[in-house]
Amino acid sequence: MSSSNRTESSPLTFILTGIPGLPTSSPWAALPLCCLYLLMLLGNGTLLWMIRTDHTLHTPMYSFLSMLATADLGLSLSTLPTMLAVFGLGSPSLPLEPCIVQMYFIHCFSAIESGVLVAMAFDRFVAICHPLRYSSFLTSSLMAKAGGLICLRGVSVVLPVAVLIRKMPFCGSRVLSHSFCLHQDLLRLVCGDVKVNSLYGLIAVILTKGLDSLAILLSYTMIVKAILSIVTPGARAKAFSTCISHLSAVLIFYIPLIGLSITHRFGKHLHPLTQTLLADAYLLVPPVLNPLVYSWKTQQIRRRILLLLCWRWYQHQV
């Protein structure tokens, strides 16, 4: 029986899971979660506002940073409805169609963020290895084309994943492992042949995160070679310091992602809390930490924030 026939007689719904050991609608989980989402919105929204309003930040590096903040906002807002429904309202059920839509947007924005990290690695490569060609090569036209290609790749590569999973029959358990919908988790509940879905899911990961991680690794291999060729230790340290923020963003994004992928495939014996924490870290940690890292490590943004705070304090005093 196909999933479409099943949904006509009885709507197919999934049960979302909160944190193992805590009841749904728990204030102990809802309050920190609300704080995290407020911090995500405030941090990424502030970054976008500053880059938009300050003309000194209209450079390739900050254009890529605004793309990263936009992807982080999209990733956060994709998980927000079900996370708050589970932990705030104690409503853990979700119909099939909204679940697939959420799954699509989560994986789509994740692929877009991965692509943006590659573009930022290329930006650092040109800035360090070919500094004299930086402004002439990374033009606004190239930036717009790169952003469009990154978004187009994320949308087109992930779309077949949603189409294929929609056609699959679900039977037996309807309990998901997380408080949001992920492709690996939905695939676990399919009672038909999942070879095509699994194969394309693997291809999609290779075409996005796989190629992106190799491109980032290649970029930093050349960056390290260029930095080591600099004779002056001070100049060498200054060149490397321009990469710290991006390296932090790469590690923040890829470490939870790799951990989650490994536990989904090989961690059946692990405690359910392990998968839950890794999935939450994969989707919640990068949007929270990226604005903090760039605000702390980037002098122009830090100066802009300090000026804004001083201006607010002056207005309050007057």
What does this structure look like?
The structure is a single chain. By secondary structure, this protein is an all-alpha fold. It has one domain (26-317): Rhodopsin 7-helix transmembrane proteins (Rhopdopsin 7-helix transmembrane proteins). The chain is 76% helix and 2% strand. It has 12 helices and 2 strands; from the N terminus they run αβααβααααααααα. The protein has a two-stranded antiparallel sheet with strand order 1-2. The chain starts with a helix and ends with a helix. Mean pLDDT is 85; it is low at 1-8.
Indicate the topology.
Blueprint: H1 3-9, E1 13-15, H2 27-53, H3 60-87, E2 93-95, H4 96-129, H5 134-137, H6 140-166, H7 183-187, H8 195-228, H9 233-241, H10 244-266, H11 272-297, H12 299-317
Antiparallel strand pairs: 1-2
Helix pairs in contact: 2-3, 2-11, 3-4, 3-11, 4-6, 4-8, 4-10, 6-8, 10-11, 11-12
Can you list the strand order of the major beta sheet?
1-2
What is the fold-level CATH name, i.e. the topology? Rhopdopsin 7-helix transmembrane proteins
Just name the CATH architecture: Up-down Bundle
Structural class: mainly alpha
Please sum up the structure shown.
By secondary structure, this protein is mostly helical. Helix content is 76%, strand content 2%.
Describe this protein with a few key phrases.
12 helices, single chain, disordered N terminus, 318 residues, mainly alpha, two-stranded antiparallel sheet, globular, Rhopdopsin 7-helix transmembrane proteins, 2 strands
